[in-house]
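Methods, example record. To illustrate the input and output format used throughout this study, we show the complete record for DUF47 family protein. The sequence lines were provided to the predictor; the line carrying structure tokens was produced by it.
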Amino acid sequence: MRFRLTPRETSFYDMFAASADNIVTGSKLLMELLGADSSARAEISERMRAAEHAGDDATHAIFHQLNSSFITPFDREDIYSLASSLDDIMDFMEEAVDLVVLYQVEELPKGVEQQIEVLARAAELTAEAMPNLRTMTNLTEYWIEVNRLENQADQIHRKLLAHLFNGKYDAIEVLKLKQIVDVLEEAADAFEHVANTVETIAVKES
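The corresponding predicted structure is encoded as:
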């Protein structure tokens, strides 16, 4: 850790932790969606929308603090990138739930539960990692594991696409389901972006 003579604005750490905790909430709502019937999905979607709004508020608070702080704990562009990537995760998860409801999907294809389990695990790891930004310790295993999970998500996504195009579904249903699994894959990519940003920050601060 580099020695600093100037004080740093430390509230960023708490805000990043709050944003990551909110993502865990979103991942739990995705898990709920798996076991819900069509009548319960609308209510889950409303709760996910509220979580997404809370995520937006957290992101805006970080940007406001960034614009009003003279000294920041690490580079401004990295703070912006980390906040934006965390926000992207919530956006993708909310979009996936919304699409399930809007498209009135009766049954999600086998394999989606594996996608969501990967996202839930990545959410837990991200929430555990954010407080460690204060000390820049115990982060290496975090970004290695999230990158491994993203690779796993890629494999699951490819298998899902193969399943969707095996002739079992009609063309319209394929389009609906593909958009949903694609958005879940984008959420996995966004977790990797967060981990890569954390790695960049840690390297700069070492």
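Annotations derived from this record:
The two ends are 5 Å apart (CA to CA).
Helices lie at 11-34, 38-68, 76-102, 112-129, 140-164, 171-205.
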